[in-house]
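Check these lines:
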Amino acid sequence: MTAPTTIPVVRSLPSPGDYLCGLTWFDRLLWQSDQDAGRIWAVEPGFGEVVRELECDRVRADLTHHDGLLCQVGGRPKRLVLVDPATGGVVGTKAVTPSNGRLCGVEATAEGVWMCLRAPAVLQLRDFETMTVLREIPVEGSPSGLTAVNRTAVYAEFDTGLVRAVDTRTGRITGTARVEGAPTGMAWDGYSLWYCDFRARRLKAIRLDDVLR
């Protein structure tokens, strides 16, 4: 099998922090979380300026949004921490059972919330209100971040620098590509896939079509 080639980066923005964890697209902004800084920043995607900064000392992994709230993977054991994007106040938490440290990626969608877990590596679709597992798909590698585009889930692997696309109806991997650096959190802005390049401390955009080739 031919090794995946490194696909081009189409946009690149500096990260406000040094320990890039989660990333989501919400209210026309890129929201990026940082474990060491204990912060969530809203970044304007045009020139990369920070337009909002929230304190969140529970940051541990990926970030998404649901029903007007930011949903940060955080705490010990990991859970979803619900954060008001206007004030940074924590308005609740949602336990992800069984409680453990495997949860690394999250993306809320119309059909539920997709999560990726490590060791063993799986994608799970859960009901947002009850966190009941609705579907589980075994996957390859060791996921580090997740987003979703229609019926395709896309997850990143920090150690290998790979991004993989999975058809959520069949569970089949439909694309694998190598990206620059060490990817963690991921997001979809409606046009491009964004990922946190942990080592370069940048937010980078790639094309979904390049992953699916």
Observations:
- The two ends are 14 Å apart (CA to CA).
- The mean pLDDT is 96.
